[in-house]
Amino acid sequence: MSAVRVIDSGPLALVQDLGRPGLAALGVSASGAFDRTAHRLANRLVGNPEGEAAIESALGGLTLALPAGAWFAVTGAWSDTVLVTEGRRTLVEPHTATIVDAPAELHLGTLTRGLRSTIALRGGLAVPAVLGSRSRDTLAALGPAPLRAGDLLPLGPEPRSPVPVGDLVPVDPPTDGVVELGVRPGPRHDWFDAAAWSLLLTSEWTTSARSDRTGVRLEGPALDRVGDLLGVELASEGMLRGSIQVSPDGAPTVLGPDHPVTGGYPVIAVVVDASLDRLAQLRPGQPVRLRLATGRR
User: Fold this and answer.
1) Is the pTM for the entire model greater than 0.85?
2) In whole angstroms, what is the distance from residue 124 CA to residue 160 CA?
């Protein structure tokens, strides 16, 4: 069986698929790829089913040893990605399917746009599944451990579908400017006064360096509760990916894929599904604006 060897994991590299939904009653979050669009695209480029396990690399620095004959694709964040084959260095274009003619090393360099890259290999990563998924849940410590130098990742069997003839997809890089997220009122928006709701939708927020797969913290003005709810504790209730919880200091946090399944902070708003993948590519210090969404998604 062919396998990929990790030479350098970079700051954080995880195995992810599309998660383990439907287990919230057991206290288990769905987890899964943070940038689902990038994950699906990477798998499609190499002829895999969209849900096959791939590598999610944060902040670049990942180096992999690939066997001869392996197909791979890199999507999501843009970086100076290089393939080294028998001493020959080739720059890898983002969002392309590439075959390795001889054993080679794939290097993800400094990120130029975005925060997380997805690396899919034809056949997918055949690591053991936990509760039906190969995703790493960083909060619950479920699934494959974060990758380390020396790890061997077996590749699955050859997929039925061939590698698509069109091996390059024109995708714009993640923006390095203001990112807009569509939101709708949350179940506890009435816990906040009109000024707080206005601030939420008119302020330019800043992505905190304290953000991770559990949640993306936004820095900006404090969102105040209505007077009679100041200091009141909310009974723990179910949480969803994209929920915007407001902590007692008035700071909003958008829950990510590894969020807890319950929480005790009021949810003022919820990011719509169509905007969720943008959270994965937010860099510390990047500005964010929240806009009231229209339509069904």
Assistant:
1) yes
2) 12
